[in-house]
Here is the input.
Amino acid sequence: MLSPFVEEFLRNPATVGSLVPSSRELTEAVMAPIDFARAGCIVEYGPGTGVFTDIIIRRRRAETVVLLVEVNRRFCQLLQQRYSGQPNVHVVHGSADKTAGYLDGLGAPRADYVVCGLPFSSLPRRQGWRILEHTQQQVLRPEGRLILFQYSLRNKKLFGRFFRLLNDQQVLLNLPPAHVLLYEPLSSGGGDEVIR
Here is the structure.
């Protein structure tokens, strides 16, 4: 019997992105930039089955708001069941480019960190653009950080229109190997200065 993760990948690989969940090495590389002692709000785009979420919830302070934005209905239901007893953890079935509205609805502050594993290589370019612009302008605090993990670097120019790269770490012990990209937001409108 196939796991829910594999079933959803086979049903819609464009939104799931990988056939197997992330490795411990990739998970640790994604978590490393987060200052859990100070974070007031952490957003995760596309948490899937909750591989990263489990660690975020285990390490965060109880008062830290965690918002999980998941477009896949089945994953969303699994996440809601798993985290229903956790304080300040909110699961939304929706799109990443509407996250600011979800935060406003919760009375939550802007995010200190956005963790994102969305497969930008298989998303329509316009949708990827909307998500990144929305994250830069409305979701992250000016000093916030976007932590992206990607299996391809083909969208680095797109990321660079809205964010300044601080670190690029390749994680080979993952299937497939991945890059963990740490970004800070460019000031609003600064994306036009980046080479297309």
